[in-house]
Specification:
By secondary structure, this protein is α/β, with parallel strands linked by helices. It has 2 domains: 130 residues, CBS-domain (Roll), CATH 3.10.580.10; 43 residues, no CATH class. It contains 9 helices and 8 strands. It has a 3-stranded mixed beta sheet with strand order 1-2-3. Strand 2 and strand 3 form a beta hairpin. It is globular.
């Protein structure tokens, strides 16, 4: 069971501060090399003129929007495959707010910004996996984090996966599903 304390914890306390920014005109092949060298799973894409963050490229974007479409990594730029607009969350927001935002946008990663300053005031990133990794529990049960207790406890109620909309009859089933399909076996978080 997760405590309200963890769910109300501020994102700024668990933000991943190692992040990389690259210009929108960077070739995907160069971006992939930087990702490998820096040991990161994504890069924040900035405007070539203003250096303002405009999107994000993940390993999944490279796989689905470049490799699977047989495009050349040294012919396509980050701008061509980035996810945009950039979805962000403020450091002061809660873990629960981050999970709900990721759920509503069907994403697994958010760029974290501090409250003041300019539009490029990035402090790091947060992923569904980093949130799960910071939950003080031996067994992760995202259904419990994401669904109201009243829904979980009702007998016969269908529980819907927040990521793919599959239906499950109980909390244990959806938890296994999320671990297996959306977190554990997915190498491209």
């Amino acid at each position: 069971m997760y405590s309200d304390t963890h769910l109300s914890q501020k994102i700024g306390t668990i933000v991943e501060k190692d992040y990389v920014t690259l210009s929108e005109n960077t070739l995907v092949g160069e971006g992939a090399k930087v990702m490998k060298d820096k040991d990161v799973l994504s890069v924040i894409v900035t405007s070539k003129n203003s250096k303002e963050p405009i999107g994000i490229v993940t390993e999944r974007d490279i796989l689905y929007r470049l490799v699977s479409e047989n495009k050349g990594p040294f012919k396509v730029t980050l701008k061509d495959i980035m996810s945009s607009p950039l979805i962000t969350i403020a450091e002061e927001e809660s873990v629960k707010d981050a999970v709900l935002l990721m759920r509503s946008k069907h994403i697994r990663r958010l760029v974290v910004k501090n409250a003041g300053g300019s539009s490029n005031n990035i402090t790091g990133t947060i992923t569904l996996m980093s949130i799960v990794g910071n939950i003080p529990s031996d067994k992760v049960d995202l259904a419990e984090v994401e669904l109201p207790a009243s829904v979980i406890e009702r007998e016969g109620a269908k529980i819907i996966c927040p990521y793919c909309q599959s239906q499950f009859k109980d909390r244990a089933e959806i938890s296994k599903h999320i671990d297996r399909i959306h977190i554990g076996s997915d190498l491209l978080v």
